[in-house]
Amino acid sequence: MKTAKEIFFFELAAMQDLEREAISILGLLVRSRVRDDTLKQILGDMVSMSDRHSARIDTCLRHLGVTPLHTRSGPIHGVREDFQNLLRIPHDDAVRDLFALNSAQRITNLAIAGYEHLTDWAITIGSVACTRCLIKNLAERTRIAQQLRERNQTLSEELLTSHT
């Protein structure tokens, strides 16, 4: 890499990996027998959102005339490994739901940080089309983060009261 644009392309590709991997991880969370219906709905919404976000990143790359790079987002793969490790040890259903929710929050927080950073880069390189796409993704992630925080509060309180 030699230019700021090349760094931007590299990081945009890593964000696309994050969104694609998020779809897979969120599917794993739902298939792990999440029992909380509200959480299931939020996770399903997040799958659709990640699909839209990945498509917007494709739009951004096309606008820039760049072939998508194949770059790995390391942190997102850690989220999968942590959840798979939980599934290997004995746990209560409520604990699994809360851990699934926490995994969804980690995905969301990674994405928010990434989109904030990428939006700054898109502005710096003067790509209005990419800036728009990235701001849409950031706004959606920010909204879902609030839903996850509210659900986390409820599930945490339920778990605490059921085990005291």
TrEMBL record:
InterPro entries listed in its UniProt record: DUF892_YciF-like (IPR010287), Ferritin-like (IPR012347), Ferritin-like_SF (IPR009078), YciF (IPR047114)
Gene3D superfamilies with a match to the protein in the record: 1.20.1260.10
Superkingdom, natural source: Bacteria
Protein name: Uncharacterized protein
Lineage: Bacteria, Bacillati, Actinomycetota, Actinomycetes, Micromonosporales
